[in-house]
Every structure is written in C-alpha cells, then in structure tokens.
Amino acid sequence: MNCVNRFFTRLMTNVPAGHKFYRGKFERGAAEYVYIPTAQGHVLDGKFRYECNHKDGNYEHAEGEYEHDFKSGYWSMFCKHSDGRKELRTHFMCGVLSGDMIYASLNNTDDTAEDLALTVFDGEVSGHITGRFKDGHSFHGLCDDNGYPDGPWTLIKYDRRKIVSTITENWSHGIFQNAYHEDAEGHRTPTEVSLRELINAKLMNEVSQLLGYVSRGTKDDILHIRRR
Q: Is the pTM above the cut of 0.90?
C-alpha cells in the first residue's frame, strides 16, 4: 500500500497560531506534521509522524517532535521486516543526540534478541553502556565525560544461564591497555577481541539505520565510541 494513501490519525486538533498542518509525501514515504510557513518553505515546529510501507512488506515508522526545523526531545523509530523487528528510543537537543538511548532487536526465525542501552551527551557516548548480543552474551562498558572508553569493559558468555567465560578489555580515557579471556576456572589468556569494535558495529550499522529513517533536522546521525 502506498504510504500516501495510508490512513493517518491527526496528531494535533489545535494547530498553534502561525503554524499549519501538513499530511502527505515526505522523503521516501509519507508524514504528518506541524510547521511554520516561510518564503523558503516549511519549517517543522511541533509534533511529527512518519511511516513508509515498502513493496517487499517492510515497514518503517518514526515519531517525535521538531523545534525550529531540528529534532528535539523524545523520538522513537521502529521497523518491521520478514525476519523480525527493531526499535530505537532516543533523545535529541537542537538536532544532536543527547540523552538516554535504548535499542532492541528481535529475530523471528530463531527467537534471538539483542539490546543496547547507553547515554549520549552532546553527540558523544557518556557513562555506562550495557546490553546483550543475539547469542545471549551480555556486555558492560563505561565512557568518560569526553566520550572515551575508560576502565574495564566486559563480555560475559553464558551456557544455560551459567557463566562459562569472560572477556575483559581495560581502557584508560581512550587509551587501550590490555585484554584477556578468563574461563570458568579463572585461567586467563591474552585476546585480541575488541568489545568496543563490536558495539561500534552495532551503533554505526543498525542504530544509524533507524536514525536515518528521517534525516531532516539531524546534525549527525552517526554514533560511535572513539579512542585515542
């Protein structure tokens, strides 16, 4: 079904003075939003909703708010495809990622799930990073106030809810120190596995894909964890 012909529920019954309401084509799909009319075109300012139905059955949805043409406040992005679904909940300030972010993915084929929770401050990851990969392995890391990895980063591997091994990376304000694998008996061996790189791959591929559903009003939709 063409997105333009899809029924939308009107987001606002009362449009603020000086604003207008739009419903129709937008980027690859269709949207409804409140805007300020200017000689140069629409300046988005208020509630916004976007959706797109692809011919292959995939569905995209994004909803949030604009402030003077920049994404602001809470936003949610969602997609449904033949293999499963993905969801992202995040926050913006003047078009820049800033606030709590939660990403989740579910694969219908094998019922595997993964998630990621972190905080972004002015476009940089800051504080604790937690989550799990599709194989059920959990991870935890920490970034300092400048967005650099700091302290121990751990990947815990399970078998039937029992910890079988742990991979630990040690960082000092963005400078890599060492990494080792520790089995259930406490034996340690050096390793080159990079948990930071695994999380970055998820951020720069899956998360950025959802962020890119609506590109307008975003100053930078590529999020990654830096190192020195």
A: no
